[in-house]
Design brief:
It is a single chain. With about 375 residues, the chain is α/β, with parallel strands linked by helices. It has one domain: TIM Barrel (Alpha-Beta Barrel), CATH 3.20.20. Helices cover about 30% and strands about 20% of the residues. The strands form four sheets. Strands 6-5-4-3-2-1-10-11-12-13 form a ten-stranded mixed sheet, sandwiched between helices. The chain is globular, with a radius of gyration of 20 Å.
Length: about 375
């Protein structure tokens, strides 16, 4: 494949393309793994946003440990979390790489480099902790939202601040390009009513979606919590729990009753098949119009199973067509949306990477199995 992304081509194409709107450039989705892993919550069921498999044989390199050390006052909870995280790290043979940590300078250089790319960019700023407790992460998001070639900036958060604080944080942002996915963590939230009020206010200024994690202890209240959030006018989706609980591995250990419940609340049949039934991903557009970028600027086909494509500063080669996923599972919810199966049935309908709808030509097919989908969302 000819290298079409060299620095000289970047610079030439960008000089021409900045005069056009982002929608006239080829679209490229980037999941930017920043290495930021500090959080003000300590959820036992947390799945960090580090690329799966980015660890060596020493558990001290797991990025989540900085969070666990601050929770050392509860040793049993820490132990359960270490075991859970360690057991949900699928690694392809011979593909282990050292964990890549947070670096402010590198982070901002990559943010600024994005402005020079000849693409209309949809960037998810991936963190293993909380986005809004790091001023540099926020500054990068602000810059990115103002780049001429930015179509969307997707942020993830636990929404633990007040709306007034978010108003201050968002000063200087182009909010018309901001989407957020906020996790509802009832084990950590002190005032659920206030949290929902804040979410409803945030929903008025950015493209917002709320995620609930189907951790086994939270299953009894899952539907109640989902309905409560939806009554506040919020878009809500559910993620399966991937990990260990009470010596059982999930999602494999969900009971039949659990699976029936999840089938009734999952955002789509596709999500259910991938996240609960662990259907093999198949052909995927990862590497074609979607890439994972780490804190060193290295470009990978995706963040789960590593296949190098180049470097953001030195040039990278995109793949020309979809190819099979090299793994047996697709662990990242934003990456399984790149599969050919998903794109044949669904299309994104907002800035938010978690909002999509069934394509008109598949409505009849999807309607056959109403027990496993809520595709009208």
């Amino acid at each position: 494949m000819a290298r079409a992304d060299s620095l000289s081509v970047f610079q030439f194409v960008f000089r021409v393309s900045v005069l056009t709107s982002p929608t006239q450039l080829p679209r490229l989705k980037i999941r930017f793994g920043t290495g930021w892993d500090t959080c003000n919550y300590h959820c036992e069921y947390c799945v960090t946003d580090q690329p799966i498999g980015d660890n060596d044989d020493s558990p001290t390199t797991l990025p989540v440990l900085s969070r666990l050390r601050s929770a050392a006052a509860n040793p049993s909870k820490v132990l359960r979390k270490v075991v859970s995280v360690a057991n949900r790290l699928p690694v392809l043979p011979g593909k282990e790489t050292p964990t890549i940590g947070w670096d402010e300078g590198k982070y901002l250089r990559i943010i600024d480099r994005c402005a020079e790319l000849p693409y209309s960019l949809d960037v998810r700023i991936g963190v293993g902790g909380e986005t809004f407790i790091n001023k540099t992460v926020v500054e990068g998001a602000r810059r990115l939202s103002n780049h001429a070639n930015t179509a969307a900036v997707n942020l993830i958060s636990n929404l633990s601040f007040s709306f007034k604080q978010y108003e201050k944080i968002f000063q200087g942002f182009d909010l018309s390009r901001i989407a957020m996915v906020c996790s509802f963590h009832p084990t950590e939230i002190k005032d659920i009513d206030r949290w929902i009020e804040t979410a409803a206010e945030i929903n008025q200024i950015v493209d917002l979606a709320i995620v609930l994690v189907a951790w086994p202890p939270l299953m009894p209240t899952l539907i109640e919590n989902k309905e409560r959030l939806e009554q506040a006018g919020l878009e809500v989706f559910v993620q399966a729990f991937h990990g260990w609980h009470e010596q059982k591995k999930f999602p494999e250990s969900y009971s039949d009753a659990d699976r029936d419940l999840l089938a009734s609340v999952f955002y789509s049949k596709h999500d259910y098949a991938h996240m609960v039934d662990l259907i093999q991903p198949g052909d995927c557009y990862a590497g074609v119009d979607y890439v994972y970028v780490d804190i060193n600027g290295d470009v990978w086909r995706c963040g789960t199973y590593k296949m190098p494509l180049g470097n953001l500063f030195k040039g990278f080669d995109l793949m020309s067509r979809p190819a099979p996923c090299p793994g047996t599972e697709c662990w990242c919810d934003t990456e399984n949306l790149n599969t050919v199966a998903f794109r044949k049935q669904y299309e994104l309908n907002s800035l938010n990477q978690h909002k999509y709808r069934a394509r008109a030509n598949t409505m009849g097919e999807l309607a056959i199995d109403q027990s496993a989908t809520s595709d009208s969302n």
